[in-house]
Automatic annotation (TrEMBL):
Protein name as annotated: B-cell receptor CD22
Listed GO biological process terms: cell adhesion
Family statement: Belongs to the immunoglobulin superfamily. SIGLEC (sialic acid binding Ig-like lectin) family.
Keyword annotations: Cell adhesion, Lectin, Membrane, Transmembrane, Transmembrane helix
Topology in membrane: Single-pass type I membrane protein
Keyword Nuclease applies: no
Record carries keyword Transmembrane: yes
Primary location recorded for the protein, binned into one broad class: membrane
Localization per record: Membrane
Pfam families referenced in this protein's UniProt entry, alphabetically: Ig_3, Ig_CD22
Length: 387
């Protein structure tokens, strides 16, 4: 029941479908697996001038197809209605609906395959108060056989043809065969002859895991369909992620990933040495803890995909740990640095190597932190303060 008032919203009820009515909807069956079940809230309220939504949904057996929804306003307490006289909405023949409701009532979802029968009534008036019922019409889809979809091996860049064969190749009226393509639609050609249909396209990596459906519709609007998932053989270049500059004593974390089907075998190696890490899942992590300067060098990720070998490499730099002690130098040995640094530092100064490069030193000065002194070609020096 929907009740409408100008000054307030009063609760009303929408009568649930009784078991007897449910059975009538589903051809009198008492099997709970073959009963059309309606679900809706029992109370709907609205103010005049606004709109009212009657939420409604339904479930049905797999072999039932709902095709027509009819909403009716009960003319009396017993709700003994007539479709031609009491309909406020008809999903197929809008002219059957009462003139006062024809332009005000609509389904929230027009596709009944989504099992949504909710209805909206706009421009509510007092005369809209009352009981409403839904009538669903449909048909049994007794066809249990599905079409056969033949999918050849698919390889990226090589044209391929899918073939759909309708069930029951008979001499009667040929069915209508349609393809539903959930993916890119470039360069796709479909050809249908009687009970067969082909779909020709050039697969790419983007088509991998795409779903393709073949729907067959026979006379009497009886439909059946089959859906397949495409597996496209492809491989892309390996990608290495992770930081390639690590301090001595820290941990190196590198990951090599390859987008491909089927997954490749991935091997890590260093400076052309034997395999360090191997994985067959398309993703291989390389972890080395407590790094030393001996771990510096080129690391290679090799992916073996069927008969193809792909590689990617990365050069790892190990920043040597700065020691606490400094090598004290005499003024005589520091004479060549005073020219550049005498305006910045005061003795005593000391130098210590910050990395594996023997030409680089920390310039240590008590109480002033560390500066980096880098030897340039010809013996000149530059200085750069580090945070």
């Amino acid at each position: 029941m929907v009740q409408a008032h100008q000054d307030s919203c009063e609760e009303g009820t929408t009568k649930p479908v009784s078991p007897q009515e449910t059975e009538k909807i589903w051809h009198g069956s008492s099997d709970p697996q073959k009963v059309l079940q309606l679900h809706h809230q029992e109370q709907t309220t609205a103010q005049t001038g606004l709109c009212a939504v009657i939420p409604c949904s339904f479930t049905h057996p797999d072999d039932y197809i709902a095709s027509i929804a009819i909403w009716l306003k009960c003319p009396n307490a017993h709700c003994s209605f007539k479709v031609k006289n009491d309909s406020i909405f008809h999903s197929e023949k809008s002219s059957i609906a009462q003139e006062g409701y024809r332009s005000r009532v609509a389904l929230l979802e027009t596709d009944l395959k989504k099992n949504n029968c909710s209805v909206i009534i706009n421009d509510i008036t007092k005369t809209d108060a009352g009981d409403y019922k839904l009538r669903l019409s449909g048909k049994l889809n007794t066809l249990t056989q599905k079409p056969s979809v033949l999918t050849p091996p698919l390889t990226e860049g090589e044209p391929a043809t899918l073939t759909c064969t309708a069930p029951g190749i008979c001499s009667g009226t040929p069915p209508n065969i349609t393809w539903t393509w959930r993916g890119t639609g470039d360069n796709i050609t479909d050809v249908t002859t009687t009970h067969f249909s082909t779909l020709t396209f050039t697969p790419s990596a983007e088509h991998h895991t795409t779903k393709v459906s073949c729907q067959v519709t026979f006379k009497g609007n009886i439909t059946t369909e089959e859906t397949v998932t495409l597996n496209v053989t492809h491989v892309k270049e390996p990608k290495i992620s992770g930081s390639n500059t690590v301090r001595e004593g820290d941990t190196l974390n590198l990951t090599c990933s390859v987008d491909s089907y089927p997954p490749p075998s991935i091997t890590w190696s260093k400076n052309g040495t034997t395999a360090m890490q191997q994985n067959n899942s398309g993703l291989a992590a390389l972890t080395i803890s407590k790094l030393t300067r001996e771990h510096a060098g080129e690391y290679v990720c090799k992916a073996q995909h069927l008969n193809r070998t792909l590689t990617a490499s990365i050069v790892v730099t190990v920043m040597c740990e700065c020691k606490q002690h400094c090598t004290h130098l005499t003024e005589k040995s520091l004479k060549h640095v005073y020219f550049k640094l005498s305006m910045i530092y005061l003795p005593p100064l000391s130098l210590v190597r910050p990395s594996c490069d023997s030409q680089c030193f920390w310039v240590c000065h008590p109480g002033k932190g560390h500066d980096l002194c880098v030897c340039q070609p010809g013996g000149s020096l530059t200085s750069q303060r580090l945070a």
